[in-house]
Amino acid sequence: MLNTLPLLLKTDFPPLRRSRLTTLQANLGYRCNQACLHCHVAASPKRTEEMSWATMELLLEFATRQGIGQFDLTGGAPELNPNFRHLVGAARALGIALIDRCNLTILNEPGQEDLADFLAENGVEVVASMPCYLEENVNRQRGDGVFESSISGLKKLNALGYGQPDSGRLLNLVYNPGGPSLPPDQVKLEAAYKSELSTRYGIFFNQLYALANMPIQRFGSQLLSSGQYTSYMQLLKGAHRPENLAGVMCRSLISVGWQGEVFDCDFNQMLGLPIGGNQSRHLSELLAVDFENQPISIADHCYGCTAGQGSSCGGALETSPA
Question: In the Cβ-directed half-sphere of 111, how many Cα atoms lie within 13 Å?
Answer without folding.
Answer: 5
